[in-house]
């Protein structure tokens, strides 16, 4: 698929990340640290976790996804950062944190890039291709760490394919904002996502179940037949009908807390 004609002054590589500009874009809720390169922003952020800090890498060389998968992109083509937060949640509500993060990223992308992301359980973000296929353009990796005062903190890693061309995509099921025809600078996208994340985390701390209700409404997995590869390598196939109060996907009455989901079709009634 070709990228539509674009303003020639815009470069998909968008190479000019600047620490002061990023900090201004993120707003007063965050303290921003910019690194030219980093193996993993999550690893950097977790090494000395401080709530309210965001570590941004202009180029991440050894990123990680869920289940310890690698996540790499060409220089200048992705937005990669990790936010350290105190979720202010009881242990029972921590599983809602990655779901709330997905809502926030989708909202920020929608505002900055003018596209309509879909949320696939638990926290992948998809765009619909011209052939009708849903392809992943962003992912989230959340890790629980211990803060300097002994409190549990979350390191939220976010990676968004921004300027990757069709030829640069790592797998056929991936896409990028550029491939989808969206022209957005990484700094503008970062600011929109960071501000949306701060707002959503406040809402989650105030009323976890209200945020969960919003997630249920936004989750494109609910209402589909799915295949779920469970951690023990077995595969569960059935109708995804709900997300329960603990953030688990309900498939044919069975609550699934972790697993790789493949959307089969949207015909569940």
How does this model look, in words?
With 269 residues, the protein is α+β, with helices and mostly antiparallel strands. It has two domains: 199 residues, BirA Bifunctional Protein, domain 2 (2-Layer Sandwich); 44 residues, SH3 type barrels (Roll). The strands form three sheets. A seven-stranded mixed sheet has the order 1-2-5-9-8-7-6, sandwiched between helices. Helix 1 runs parallel beside helix 4. The chain is globular, with a radius of gyration of 18 Å. It starts with 18 loop residues before the first helix and ends with a strand.
H-E string: HEHEEEEHEEEEHHEEEEE
- Mean pLDDT comes to 89
What is the global morphology? Answer: globular
Helical segment count: 5
Can you say what the CATH homologous superfamily of the largest domain is? Bira Bifunctional Protein, Domain 2
Q: What level of helicity do the residues show? A: 10-25%
Structural class from helices and strands? Answer: alpha+beta
CATH architecture of the largest domain: 2-Layer Sandwich
Number of domains: 2
Largest sheet: 7 strands, mixed
The low-pLDDT segments are 1-13
Supply Rg. Answer: 18 Å
- Read across the widest sheet, the strand sequence of neighbours is 1-2-5-9-8-7-6
> What is the strand content?
25-35%
CATH structural class of the largest domain:
Alpha Beta
Distance between the termini: 33 Å
Question: According to CATH, what is the topology of the largest domain?
Answer: BirA Bifunctional Protein, domain 2
Let me know the number of strands: 14
